[in-house]
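Q: What would this chain look like folded?
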Amino acid sequence: MLLTFGALAGRDQRSAGPRPAGRVGDWAVMNSVTPNDESTTAAGDGWSEDMELAPVHPGDRPAAEPDGDREGERLQKVLARAGVGSRRVCEDMIEAGRISVNGRQVTVQGMRVDPGRDKIAVDGVRIEIREDRITYAMNKPPGVITAMSDDRNRPTVGDMVGDLAKGLVHVGRLDQDTEGLLLLTNDGELAHRLAHPSYEVRKTYLAQVSGPVPRDMARRLRAGVELDDGPVAADSFRVVDTHAGQSVVEIVLHEGRKHIVRRLLAHVGLPVSRLTRTAVGPIELQRMRSGSIRRLSKEELGSLQELVGL
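A: My prediction, written as structure tokens:
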């Protein structure tokens, strides 16, 4: 029996091995709780309440001399405000060498940073520390226009966003009949780089197609085909499931041309009846309900920034 398209779309795209079984027959597998957008490091263990017996806490030591005349905020304060942990926990993490600033490991207390300029990572993972930069993931339903408004009164992603945040723009577009992951942000430079073809950001799609899939299709698509507006090649292609003349395939492209997935698959004899985008770079649709919106975590936002060199 052909696996449900919705169940396949809800799977974690990071796993290259066998996929866990989803519920068959509807989109219910996607209608579960989404991950929290804030992660907090638990407080450290081992500190005695009797401070005469406890070891000297790194935050109680004299602050290191700042780098020259460097101005800004203390690193542990910035980390705490970003939700990494309490100031004491952040001081422990600095002492343990788990924090880096602009690619350099920090192991002494008292460093000052500029939240608007410096790049801070925890355990090698970039985190966004500016509170004014917000990015959301939306599971766009079919039939909704990728626009913030429409003079023909058609439903738009702008209608769905409402007054969620000022200055939001959609990153790229999804066709009206295509559903799935759409990013929205108020960071104009991030939006520009994610959508610009020179950064080659990969997008992952699940497509339900008609007809059998030839065994050499992956090789053909990776080699590239010539469309009316120029050549296009898939980064990867695989058959997820097939039954009774219908197949579900996964295709990854870094192209952004109009209707590119539908045109490419139709060109090779695989007309698309349903299309869902499941990932943009490292950000995945996961199990978001159709029409739902969630704020990206600081770690997710940091991974997007690293991807496009911000």
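Residues 12-69 have pLDDT under 50 and may be disordered.
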